[in-house]
């Protein structure tokens, strides 16, 4: 898969994408990355990408011309046209299902705004516009990194362990179950005994219940879209009544 970004701060991506799992995935050829500098498509001495908004108001807007020229030029650089993503707080909310959709694509161009945003006509170039959430960032670069990171970890081989992306929050529409590592007793805080039992079926059942209960408690909105049995719906109703506590282990018996 090939990711490209278009922004006025092309140098901010590499420090993150060259490290750790993203760095390894690039070296293994699981994804390619290229950051383009929007100023390369300006024609004045100051390489101007912004201008004052018509109608007045604070701040500066990104001019349409460099964005149109850049997206057209970048699109023509490879045989396959990229899927073009813009970012804006007004966009559609980015989530794991959007990540899965993008992970099936071969080439994605992420166009990052700055300042007060972009001239509205630039969005003509977008195949889709995404928002990370209901808050305002100073630029789209962080949004692009979030998208790249969350998509790359879904690509086969990126995590090393093929299973790990399958068994996580949102992979089945629910939050992930509670997890523990050594020691089994930390300052009196005990790990649920079933996890130490070596009984794989019991562990699976406990984890499923933990997933359902945590989702009911923390993200009840997700339950509507989840496939639950009658018994699981009953667990969810019970959990919705109060915080999860020590009872969690016993309840799964
Ligand atoms: N004036 C705009 C915000 C511009 S912020 C408004 O009120 O809607 C500048 C840039 O940061 C945007 O063009 C976009 O690329 C990025 N950005 C800001 N908030 C974002 C969010 N919640 N999700 C994704 N990108 C965001």
From TrEMBL:
Pfam families, per the entry: tRNA_m1G_MT (PF01746)
Q: Which reactions are catalysed by this chain?
A: guanosine(37) in tRNA + S-adenosyl-L-methionine = N(1)-methylguanosine(37) in tRNA + S-adenosyl-L-homocysteine + H(+)
> Could you tell me which Gene3D superfamilies the record lists for this protein?
3.40.1280.10, tRNA(m1g37)methyltransferase, domain 2
UniProtKB keywords: Cytoplasm, Methyltransferase, S-adenosyl-L-methionine, Transferase, tRNA processing
Q: For binding S-adenosyl-L-methionine, which residues are annotated in this chain's numbering?
A: 113, 132-137
What are the GO BP annotations of this UniProt entry? methylation
- Region annotated Disordered sits at 234-253
Note the subunit structure: Homodimer.
Q: What does this protein do?
A: Specifically methylates guanosine-37 in various tRNAs.
Name by which UniProt lists this protein: tRNA (guanine-N(1)-)-methyltransferase
Q: State the organism named in the record.
A: Olsenella absiana
């Amino acid at each position: 898969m090939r990711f490209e970004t278009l922004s006025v701060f092309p140098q901010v991506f590499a420090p993150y994408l060259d490290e750790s799992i993203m760095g390894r995935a690039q070296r293994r050829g699981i994804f390619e990355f290229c950051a383009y500098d929007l100023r390369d498509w300006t024609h004045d001495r100051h390489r101007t990408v912004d201008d004052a908004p018509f109608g007045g108001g604070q701040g500066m807007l990104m001019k349409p011309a460099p964005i149109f020229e850049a997206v057209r030029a970048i699109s023509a650089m490879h045989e396959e046209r990229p899927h073009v993503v813009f970012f804006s707080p007004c966009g559609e909310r980015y989530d794991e299902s959007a990540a899965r959709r993008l992970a099936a694509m071969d080439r994605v161009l992420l166009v990052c705004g700055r300042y007060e945003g972009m001239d509205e006509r630039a969005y003509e170039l977008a195949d889709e516009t995404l928002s990370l959430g209901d808050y305002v960032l100073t630029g789209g670069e962080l949004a692009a990194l979030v998208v790249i990171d969350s998509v790359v970890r879904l690509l086969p081989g990126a995590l090393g362990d093929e299973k790990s992306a399958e068994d996580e929050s949102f992979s089945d529409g629910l939050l992930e179950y509670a997890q523990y590592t050594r020691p089994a007793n930390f300052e009196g805080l005990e790990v649920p005994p079933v996890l130490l039992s070596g009984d794989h079926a019991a562990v699976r059942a406990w984890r499923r219940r933990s997933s359902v209960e945590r989702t009911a408690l923390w993200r009840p909105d997700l339950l509507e879209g989840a496939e639950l049995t009658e018994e699981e719906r009953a667990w969810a109703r019970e959990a919705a009544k109060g915080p999860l506590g020590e009872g969690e282990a016993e309840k799964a018996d």
